[in-house]
Amino acid sequence: DHRSDLKTLNLYNEIISTLPKRNGWKSDEVYQYQGFWHTFFYLEGLLSAQQHFKPQTNDIILSSFPKSGTTWLKALSFAIVTRSSFDISANPLLTTMPHECVLSLESDLAHNSFHRNQDTPLIGTHVPYTSLPKSIIDSRCKIIYICRDPKDTFVSLWHFLYNASFKGVDSSAKEDADFEKAFELFCDGVSYYGPYWNHVLGYWKASLESPERILFLKYEDLKNETLFYVKKIAEFMGYPFSLEEEDKRMVQKIVDLCSFQNLSRLEVNKSGQLHGRAYLIEKNAFFRKGEAGDWKNYLTPMMAARLDQITEQKLRSSGLTF
Ligand code: A3P
Predict the structure, then answer these.
(1) CB burial of residue 54 (10 Å; 0-12, 13-18, 19+)
(2) What value does the mean pLDDT take over residues 209-220?
(3) What is the CA radius of gyration of the chain?
(4) pLDDT in tens, 289-314
(5) DSSP per-residue string spanning 68-134
(6) Rounded distance, CA 209 to CA 186, Å?
(7) Which atom of ligand 1 is nearest to the CA of 222?
(8) Name one Pfam family in it (predicted).
(9) Gap between the Cα atoms of 213 and 35, Å rounded
(10) Ligand 1 test: best mutation among 70, 166, 258, 286, most atoms within 8 Å of CB?
């Protein structure tokens, strides 16, 4: 009931108040939990999800570090699993934002798993592999993880944070000094769900151990060979395309439906805001450029070299490269 809800929230509050704390990119605070930095509200959501979340059978978890292609992966996966229920021309993606078609574990579903769409076996999350609710690991849910070149991820995150408004976070400043400060913090591992490298490595290692359970994708690969990877995603999820569907160019239709060009021009993604317990985000902030390599327009050669060097060092011997 309501009173016990309040009690649990107070308990989470108490737990969070004991954690290591640092200043984030803006005037916010981030808390270190199980090795990763979190904002207050998402961490509260994670604690609740760790305690209560129960996946449905056949649920597929769509996981990512923020700004790595979450919206795209949600749209593609949603289109794949709903293709037999709707014509492409009537797909809910045309009138509903991808983040509302596929809800997120630690925000939308954290406190009310009954909010979920029972027909869609898809759940989004940014939670690091080692912090996923035990119920997800135990039920052996399939997981699709998408990551992206850390330079583009950083640049995308920088732009996003100044378009979104999170509770308790000041969105006003946008100066060179802020950019440099954010860069330093990112390099230091301090960003929402950071350190970036540990996040990626957690899923990478798990995918090597259980390739049948975890599909590891890169934004850049998906961009270069979209058709190939959409087929691969569909097969992995257990929704392979039939020969008949291939003949009818179904894969291409899904790729086109979910393309940056198409999604970003839809009214539902262009105007208005996404509301959550912890945030209010302009929907168009999720659709900025949708390109690989945009970092070249923002990072100095020194900054790029520094990030590359950190990446090289952290991922060395993992077999993963960008
Ligand atoms: P940019 O800021 O570089 O443009 P996330 O969805 O994880 O929040 O990541 C957002 C990034 O993915 C943004 O990158 C955004 O433009 C890009 N993106 C959103 N929808 C996309 C799509 N359909 N295809 C390719 N990229 C997309």
Answers:
(1) exposed
(2) 98
(3) 19
(4) 999 999 999 999 999 999 999 999 99
(5) SSHHHHHHHHHHHHHTTTS-GGG-GGGTS-HHHHS-BTTTTTSS-GGGS-TT--EEEE---GGGS-H
(6) 28
(7) 25
(8) Sulfotransfer_1
(9) 24
(10) 286
DSSP 118-137: TT--EEEE---GGGS-HHHH
Residue 134, burial from CB neighbour count under 10 angstroms (0-12, 13-18, 19+):
exposed
Give the residue carrying structure tokens 């934004």.
219
Residue with the smallest CA separation from ligand 1 atom 2 is 156
Look at phi and psi of residue 237 and say left if phi exceeds 0, alpha if psi is from -120 to 50, else beta.
alpha
What is the distance between the alpha carbons of residues 82 and 96, in angstroms, rounded to a whole number? 14
103-131 b/e (C-beta count within 10 Å ≥ 16 → b): bbbbbbbbbebeebeeebbbbbbbbbbeb
The whole-angstrom distance between residue 97's C-alpha and the CA centroid of its chain comes to 14
Tens-digit pLDDT profile for residues 223-242: 999 999 999 999 999 999 99
Residue with tokens 């850049």: 220
Q: Which residue has the tokens 């929704």?
A: 239
Ligand 1 probe mutation, 70, 72, 99, 159, most atoms within 8 A of CB: 72
CA of 72 to the centre of ligand 1 (A): 7
CA atoms of 47 and 51, how far apart (whole Å): 6
Q: pTM, whole model, 2 decimals?
A: 0.95
Q: How far is the CA of 161 from the centre of ligand 1 (A)?
A: 14
Q: Could you say which DSSP state residue 288 is in?
A: S
- CA 160 from chain centre, in angstroms, equals 13
Distance CA 86, CA 314 (A): 44
Distance CA 156, CA 66 (A): 9
Which residues have any ligand 1 atom within 6 Å of their CB? 64, 66-72, 75, 152, 156, 159, 258-260, 263, 286-290, 294
Does residue 275 have an active-site annotation?
no
